[in-house]
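tool_call: predict_structure(chain=1)
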Amino acid sequence: MAPTEPQSTTTPSPTTTPLPTSIVILGGNHAGLGVLHTLARHTIPALQRLPSQPSPPQYKITLITPNSHFFFKPASPRALIHPDLLPGGEAKVFRNLSDAVKQYGELVTLVKAYATDVDTSKKEVKIKHVDPSSPPDSEGTSAVRYDVLIIATGTKARSALWTLPGLGTDGLQAAEDATKREWEGIRTKLKNLQADTHPHHSILIAGGGPVGVETTGEIATLLKAGGKTQGVTITLLSGSDRLLNRNCNENLGRKAEAYLKKNFGSLVQVTHGIKVVSVSGEGGVEQSETTVELSDGTTRTVGLYIDATGGSGTADGFLPQTWLDASSRVITKDAFFRVRGSGTSEENSDAQAATNGIYAVGDVVSGSDNTLISTNFQVPVVCSSVGADLAAKILQSKGQTSSAKLPAPLKQKTFKNKLAGTLLVPIGPDGGVGQILGWGVPSLMVKAAKGKNFLIDMAEPAVTGSQWK
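tool_result:
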């Protein structure tokens, strides 16, 4: 296979120039970009400034991701239904990744590809290219050497509406194209429904989490504002005994249901305890109806079906099952996001922790609550783990102990979600429900904090790196 930069996996002789330390990041969305910016701005400069080195060590970061654009997922419900109400519109939701990497010059290489395997014996990641201009072998694959591997591939939903699709999507130049295509299909069906040209006036949304509740609120607001509520029903399936049954107290879900009833009346119906079993006729704009089989044995034919159920991990496509939990998320062995299954036994895991070089961050981590808040607290920790481990190697090679005084970016941090219990769920542009640190907040606060623009102002700093300055 034709390797992508860096190009050699052999150990250089003492007379040759040492290969740069190769840091490979899998995943180019919020977690992956956060790690990229933090390493490039803080960790690597700190490593290069360590004393007793004849010359600063060289590093190379390779960002491997199938998408050419960053996707700001928190704004998806608003961008999907009301892009005109989002400052900057859809263009703010999808930002070119070149805006993130170009500032670092030769330090960072962007490779548009999926990971298909990790060979720990060779310390290589095998990848399948998406970009047809890449120079892979005849099967479209190549290998990338790593000294440090960071898994930030996130989660995959059943629908491309909310997450970038995984390996196997055909005919796309980039993964986000599938998401944009799905968005256009939903918008067209809603326009047909509003224009009374659609034969079915029922809408079914599966998933009672924040995305399902927010999307229900956005669609209901759209129909109500257009006076197109006669004969239309939006059914929201919670799949549980209440809405918002994760990461929040029980009252919040009941408040969300009461808010929907108060503001939209009979337009929205919430149904608990029933899940979608199978779907047929879903998809393209030309498809006028979708038939859904439910867990109670009944079937429903609707004009619009939206799957807003939770996602699963993406790592099952390229990592051993022994590294993963039941939802295909990566199991870490400590609070510092070092991967437990990276070839280290439990008996000597502490001794090997500084040298195995494989980490996970973001939604793909087992036990993550899948929130942007949690990811923002994870990023500095995993970067401190990388920095501490690489610094220990440098110091040990000079006969120094790892207890030497280190600069802040190389000191090990411990993960703590300081905003645990915080969740804001807009239900339309005018309000919603939420809690901060477990305490309920009024609808007006939800409107001001998130309902107005769905946090879209956070997209720019995430891409440019100013969030991690």
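agent: Confidence is low (pLDDT under 50) at residues 1-10, 347-355. Proceeding to next step.
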